[in-house]
Amino acid sequence: MSVRCTRRRSLSRAAAVAVLLALAAAVSACAQIGDSVAPAFADPAKYDLYECKQLEAERKTLTARAAELQGLMAKAETGVGGAVVAEVAYRNDLISVRAQQKLVEEVWARNKCHETPPDTAAAAPPAASAKGTRPSRSGIR
Fold it and tell me: pLDDT tens for residues 60-118?
């Protein structure tokens, strides 16, 4: 009877080890998916009708969002169990944003768009108008 128990224990241990190895392989495969599944997270035709100005604004928005998500993931990883929280809470959003960035860049290149130079007129402060109200010395009118 003791021989049967030891065989069952060794078989159950072997089965447990096999299950753990299979789970480890599955988890590592999921970790390697990363950007390769990215096209599944974005509509390929979303940016086809965008003009260059719209694409430029979208590029800036997506770059800011990706940086924000990476910062949130880094912050989450500093805590206990943070890596799991970062993966669960932010990874899918980050993959989606990267997929959209890739699509925007493809349309940007296809449309032969160029960065607009910074507008120097917009950066200058508005000039005070001579017409209209006079500034009051006492602040009371």
Answer: 999 999 999 999 999 888 888 888 888 888 999 999 999 999 999 999 999 998 888 87
Query: How many other C-beta atoms lie within 10 A of the C-beta of residue 66?
Result: 17
Burial (CB < 10 A; 0-12, 13-18, 19+), residue 29, is exposed
Could you count the other beta carbons within 10 Å of the beta carbon of residue 58? 19
Determine the Cα–Cα distance for residues 59 and 40; give it in Å rounded to an integer: 19
Number of helices (H) and strands (E) in the chain: give both, helices first: 5, 0
- The token pair at 50 is 């965008």
The full DSSP string for 13-59 is HHHHHHHHHHHHHHHHHHHHHGGGGGGGGS-TTTTTT--HHHHHHHH
- Straight-line distance from the first to the last Cα atom of the chain, in angstroms, rounded to the nearest whole number: 106
